[in-house]
Amino acid sequence: MKKDNQTSCIHHSGILSCVSQVPIFNHLEPKHLDEIMSMTRSISYEKGEHIYHAGDESDSLYIVNKGRIRIYRLSESGKEQIVRILNPGDYTGELALFKKSQHESYAETMVNTSICIITREKLQTLLTKYPTIALKLLTEFSNRLEQSEKQTTRFSTETVETRIALFLAESVDPDSNSNEIILPMSKKDLASYLGTTPETISRKLAELEEKGLIKQKLQKKIEILDLDKLLMN
Amino acid sequence: MKKDNQTSCIHHSGILSCVSQVPIFNHLEPKHLDEIMSMTRSISYEKGEHIYHAGDESDSLYIVNKGRIRIYRLSESGKEQIVRILNPGDYTGELALFKKSQHESYAETMVNTSICIITREKLQTLLTKYPTIALKLLTEFSNRLEQSEKQTTRFSTETVETRIALFLAESVDPDSNSNEIILPMSKKDLASYLGTTPETISRKLAELEEKGLIKQKLQKKIEILDLDKLLMN
DNA sequence: CGACAGGTTGACCGTTATCAAAGATCGTGG
DNA sequence: CCACGATCTTTGATAACGGTCAACCTGTCG
User: Which residue is the nearest neighbor of C15, CA to C1'?
Assistant: First the structure.
């Protein structure tokens, strides 16, 4: 981990784009964005470093500027599950900012990554100064919660094959008219994310391909041939 | 469903106790609580009625005053999963207040139940007038999200037996020195909540009893005999 | 007291995890 | 730029966890 150029040269370090692309801030005026930027600091990580571990004191919001981060948990019996992948503009650490303040998950960079950090006190200041940020956060939390509960329901009621199919279907970009998707992670990680094993992922994708529903191209690239059939299984 | 006495006789209808026991409000002064109460209305339901269905327009926060409510979801393939049980002081409907405004879950009363309702507009008014409510909400959402993600991880990495054991362990009241727990729902519902079937619940509880870790008393009542062993499985 | 939902038990089988080993891919350093 | 090792991916064989179906039991409530 290495500290970047500080707030004196924020525009060079990419903090502007970092902060301005975050949904909870991007409704603010430029001058307010400037203010927020002046409250952040920037840090770079090599691939494979941890930004925080479970149990760490939580005191900051981390916004991804460049790179990719894997958030995962360890279950009571020590097995790892990937909760979410962060791309530029996404953030993490927000949970612990409002509760008892210990991380329960791990944040690990998947590639070289630079992030912006806002400490809890500074965020609290912002929240009282710009109450709309709190509303944005509430919206985000709502969506995440809905998403998480949906995921829980899927895990408890759907077969692995259905979960994979749903994941693929939801990965299709509705704007693009191409039905090609790029997996945002390795199949090993996808297995963890979907609550199964790499072996099963491999087999089920092969099955779906045999059925003519998808076509696997180069690693990570999959074309959806029949979206409807994929979903009505 | 039947509309209760309106706000003119709020103290008779139990709205006071209703609102004042809600975590997001209970830090406010009595006179502010009065104001909030004047913004609510009260409704009673018979056992088995639905307060809302998935797909319903969402426009209110529902606070349980008396009774018990079961929140459940239907998965893509139509199977039901219980998400949470609401007791007096708990609330629901908050998710849809900040997002696209359609319920994705079902709320069904388990017994005769009376609730208080605050509409979205009134809640928005409260949020801008008392920003601390937003902070309380953020805290609540954080906890729920953490909880939900933990649950997701358990579903994807733990065996049914472990999930049951964890549920039992977490149901023990740490204040009381008795290790007896009362299941908050039928075993059928518990099965749904834990992502399994009634048959498996029955079998696993029997197993745990054979191992001497628990003792089943009258329906719903279970004594934990060896909490440590229960958890280190 | 009877009916009905909830609960238990048994037999069976399908889905998916596990173990093992071979093959593909990626990143790294020479 | 190539070669190597490490990691990821695939494929096969096997086993077990837990779901399903069916029958019976039990408690609860009108």
Answer: A159
